Amino acid sequence: MAIGAVWLALATILCLEGYLLWQVRTAAWQMAVRTAENATATLSVSIARNLNIVDLSLAGLQETVEQFDLSGMEPRLRNSTLFDRAASAEDLGAMLVLSENGDVLYDNAGWPPRAGNFADRDYFRVHVNTQRGPYLAKPYVSRLREGDHSVAISRRWSDADGHFKGVLIGAIRLAYFTNLLGRVNLGPRAVLGIARDDGTVLTRVPSTDGTWNVGLDLSRSEVMQKVLSGAPQLFNAMSKVDGIERTYVYEKIGSFPLYLVVGFSHADVLDSWITEAATIFGLGTLACFIIIALFLSLQRVLDRQMDVERDLERLATTDVLTGLSNRRYFDEVLQREWDRSRRMLAPLSLMLIDVDYFKAVNDKLGHAAGDAVLRTIASTIAASLLRPGDMVARYGGDEFAVLLANTDQTGALTVASRIREGVASLQAQALNGGTMVAGTLVAGTVSVGIGTGIVVPDSVSSVEDLFRASDRALYRAKRGGRDRVEACGIEEGMEPFDETVAR
């Protein structure tokens, strides 16, 4: 009787476990589907909106060139009339007016227009006869922007009698789509892509060929055939590109002949669940005997997870070689300090420090010596910062950045001089038992550029302007002979930089 009760209890526990695990599995699957659907809907709306902005600009351009004779206007005024602010958007590669022969007549980049003939492009040929537009071209390699992968929206330019006068195009960098899709994380085996309705790929994340699979023809793939045939918007299929079975969600992008396709791997959804299921099943059979042990085990798992999270957080903000903050964390702190300085009307200084002739150290002594130089200089810079709020980070290969909150240019120059002198003194320290690699002295000098500004609430300046000021000062320091400190105000960072003048 007792044994039967035990078995009944165990069977009950196992049944409850099975039901619970099935519910967890169902919830995980539903969450994955919902996440993919939400990502698809959000991305498609965003992409369609931006494409519509380009097309609306082209429609305005089409109306202007067809209704007005602009040939006698002053060139710069004509460009301002033809091209609105959308034509200067970061992701817009170019907005052009092409003649009936395919030559560039007007160019949003300025006057005179860049030279080029595009009569061979599909976005030109399609308008020669009848199509007025808009037309979405196949992806291509730009001839005006050094091989930049792009896609174009085009419209026909006709005279009052309907005769062909030329083509209006707005080119969009495919990097815009790639960067947008790259921000979405649906698992390590997930895939996001954009393709034309003829199966031509505009971009695929992740890439399998190093070029984001631009131009790949997937018209015969199982995935695209289901998409183009109007299959249910949630389906399973095998990827022709990497052979992974996924569940796919797709969405047509506005009125354009484009589809956004998002796929998540079954393994990504079920991996964590399978591990959890095995653990729960094993522990459940002994639940009546090891409740305390289960609690302690769970506590240890949580502690380990917290340790791992702390380690990951530290690794995410720390440069492994030098132990300093890394660029990502430095950028976050810089933005916070910028916002605080704007509120407090306090000065903010940024230093960019470059190790002089570092490449020569690597070439002559090897990377071990180079690493030793970086570690030694990093510790010297850190030791030169006397306030707890001052921050130093390794910002690039042989470049460091220092952030000095509430510090004007005079104070920043004092700190920079202390850093430069401290690094220069490493030569003498090394001779007295300092850093040696393979019997060779490792020391060096640094050049320091300082950018300083007081940010007022209605200022148009930005963090990028402060960076440009620091970079400009560093350029002067290096051009002035290295092993020196130069400073610029943020106002100089807001001005165009002419290297020929700097020389």
What does this structure look like?
There is one protein chain. With 503 residues, the protein is of the alpha+beta class. It has two domains: 14-289, Beta-Lactamase (2-Layer Sandwich); 327-502, Reverse transcriptase/Diguanylate cyclase domain (Alpha-Beta Plaits, 2-Layer Sandwich), CATH 3.30.70.270. It contains 15 helices and 18 strands. The protein has helices at 2-67, 75-82, 122-125, 174-182, 222-228, 266-284, 291-317, 327-344, 358-365, 367-384, 409-424, 426-431, 463-479, 490-493, 499-502; strands spanning 92-99, 104-107, 135-136, 140-141, 149-158, 164-173, 191-196, 201-205, 234-238, 245-252, 258-265, 347-355, 391-394, 399-405, 436-437, 440-441, 446-454, 485-489. Strands 1, 2, 3, 4, 5 and 6 form a six-stranded antiparallel beta sheet that branches. A five-stranded antiparallel beta sheet has the order 8-7-11-10-9, with helices on both faces. A five-stranded mixed beta sheet has the order 13-14-12-17-18, with helices on both faces.
